Each structure stands twice: as C-alpha cells, then as structure tokens.
Amino acid sequence: MTRPLAVVDTADPLQCRAALREALSGDGPAVLFRGGGVNPVHTAPLEVEQRIAVVVETSGTTGRPKRVALSADAVLASAAASQSALGGPGQWLLALPVQYIAGINVLARSLAADVEPVPVPPGRMSGARVLAAIEQMSQPTRFTALVPAQLARLVDDAEMDAPLREALAGFSRILVGGQATPAPLVERATALGWRITRTYGSSETSGGCVYDGRPIGQTHVRVVDGRVELGGPTIAEYYLGDPARTESCFIEDDGERWYRTDDAGELADDGTLRVLGRLDDTIVSGGLKVRLGEVERVVREQSGLADAVVVPGHDPEWGEVPVVVTTQSADLAAVRRAVGAALGPEARPDRIRVLDALPTLPSGKPDRLTIARLVD
C-alpha cells in the first residue's frame, strides 16, 4: 500500500507542525518539508509506502544527495526517547529550519508534549531575536536545540547582555548537535549558567539518539572496525530511490537493524561513545595517516578558533597536509604546537587560511567541499 507525499513549505513552522501531526497519525499524507530558498536535491515522488511518514531531503556533507525515509514509529520513538532523557515534557523554542531533522524533531517533541513551540523570527540568529521569542513562551519548563554556530553567536551576545543570559539560563536543557561542538564553547556557555547537552545522530537515526556520549531510549551503539553503528527503533527505513545506498548503509545482524555511519569512533569501558571524525577524512602526510577530524577538534579548542574547519591541502614534499580555515586570525606556530603535542608532529597544520565567511550548506554545517577547493 502507498500514501501520498505532500511537499510542505517551511515558511510557517506551525503549519508544518499541523502537517506533521497528520502524517504521524496517518490522517494525512506523508510530508517532505522544503524551505522556500533551498533548491531541492531531488524531485519527490507523489507517493511513498504506507509506513513512511516523513522524508528528509539533504545534500549531505560530501555532496551526495539523499532522501531519508522515516516511519511514524521511528519519529515518535525519537521524540519519546528525548523526552525521557530530558526528564519530561516542556515547551520548545524552535531555532532550526524544519526541513532538517533537528527542526522536525522539535516539532515532533512539541506534539508529544502537546505544547505549541515558539519559533525564533526568521533571519540571521541574534540575541535580540532569540530573546524576543523567549518572551513569547508560556511554559516554565523550556528546551531548545541549536547547532554550534548558533550557540557561539548566543554566547557572544549573552556575555554582554544580561537579560539574554538569564533567559537562556532558565532553560532546562539546550541541545547542541549537527557537528562537533568545541569544548571551550561548552565551557563558556556553562559559565553563563546554561545547561548544555551535546547530541549525536543524523537523519538516518531520526536525529540525535546519543546525548553526551550515552545512547538514549532504546538506541544501541557499537563500533565495528572503527566505524560507529547505531541501532534501535529510530532507524530510518531506507533511502528513496537508492537501493544500492540503502543496502550499503542499513544492515541486519541477529535480528536487529543497524545504520552504518560514516563516522569513526570508540567506546569507553563504561559504554560512552567518543566520535573521532569521519572515516573519509584521513589523509596520508609524509607516509603517516592523519585524521583531520581529530586535528579540527584540537584546533577548535584554541582561543578564538571555535569556527575553524580543517581540510586537506597539497604539499610538494609531504603530499597532503592539514590546512586550517577560519574567519579569525591565529598564530600558526601556537596552533602547530598544540596539535603536535596532542596528536604528533605529522598532524600539525601546514597553514591557516582566513576567510571573511565560511561557506556553509543550507543546514548551517560547513561546506567542506567548497572550503577544500578554496585552499588549493
């Protein structure tokens, strides 16, 4: 059996919430949310299988487009797991685009809590816009979800703005995900009295399913040959129109379905997951392997470099070398010392490239392919 797939404009987030409610209950069509200024990566089919409630369309960080098909059970399981991990329901501040899974999750959690979310006014995020939205919230228990760049802007503003600082300190939890969050940024936010939780997940897992390294709900985590694999009821059904990719990324083992991520990781003795970076971010410099994600983690911990991205660059002697790209000036010698001390001399960045602004994907994540081309 099939059901219609409705393409819903994200201009009105509360209308999107109503459409999502009908999709999850089965009373309406499945939904695919699209922002008015975002070019779709595919033309959506008019129908999907009956069990599909949400399709998430993304260009991905590697340039390969995909459409992730999620069942109603998966989306609702994600909302229930998050609510349990956060200690109960509350009102959500919607600060993320609802065409992406993190924004969809805010809508789904709001439906589970039966409390209407409050959207941040459209436009570049600022402390003033966020504070104006917070003033519209009516419930005492409050949550929001951000990407690291948004958190960084709010921290910068709040360090000079007491009302904003105090308003966000009143939130029960601020989730931060979508990419690695630098430890110094979390420390600055925590110093303001904000309760920060770093999340890990993807569209294929119905969003964040690991909070501060620990799986939530019925999520299972394992590391196979250095690759992070995630299992549980929030896992997507498949990629629409891409059976080869589906077969490669979704596997069944002993009766349980697993999503094979593109991330490298390790599990501590207590089961805490540490994500080390993408499996495809390893370069060979002077005959030695260097994982750029690890280099980026250390670089971002240096003062003023929270936005830094590390990409491969070419060198006539060493072959490939790490290159730091940032919007801030930095002392290359100091950065090389810090990285060398943490990861070894072969991991030291060769140079720093300063841009007025970092190219980003529509989701707000760094556009690594474009950034890499800029340093060649």
Task: List its traits.
single chain; 6-stranded mixed β-sheet; about 375 residues; 2 domains; 7-stranded mixed β-sheet; Rossmann fold; alpha/beta; GMP Synthetase, Chain A, domain 3
Structural overview:
- This is AMP-binding protein.
- Pfam families: AMP-binding, AMP-binding_C.
- GO terms for molecular function: acid-thiol ligase activity.
- This protein is an alpha/beta fold.
- The protein has 2 domains: 266 residues, Rossmann fold; 95 residues, 2-Layer Sandwich (GMP Synthetase, Chain A, domain 3), CATH 3.30.300.30.
- The chain is 30% helix and 32% strand.
- The chain has a 7-stranded mixed β-sheet. It has a 6-stranded mixed β-sheet with strand order 3-1-2-4-5-15. Strands 13, 14, 16, 17 and 18 form a 5-stranded antiparallel β-sheet that branches.
- A hairpin with a 5-residue loop joins strand 17 and strand 18.
- Helix 1 crosses helix 3.
Beta content: 25-35%
**Category from helices, strands and their pairing:** alpha/beta
Low-confidence runs (pLDDT<50, min 5 residues)? none
Shape designation: globular
> In CATH, what is the class of the largest domain?
Alpha Beta
Rg from Cα: 21 Å
The beta-strand count equals 23
Proportion in helices: 25-40%
**How is the CATH topology of the largest domain named?**
Rossmann fold
Q: At the fourth CATH level, what is the homologous superfamily of the largest domain?
A: ANL, N-terminal domain
Strand order of the largest sheet: 7-6-8-9-10-11-12
End-to-end distance? 50 Å
- Separate helix tally: 11
**Overall pLDDT score:** 91
Largest sheet: 7 strands, mixed
Q: Which CATH architecture of the largest domain?
A: 3-Layer(aba) Sandwich
**Total tally of structural domains:** 2
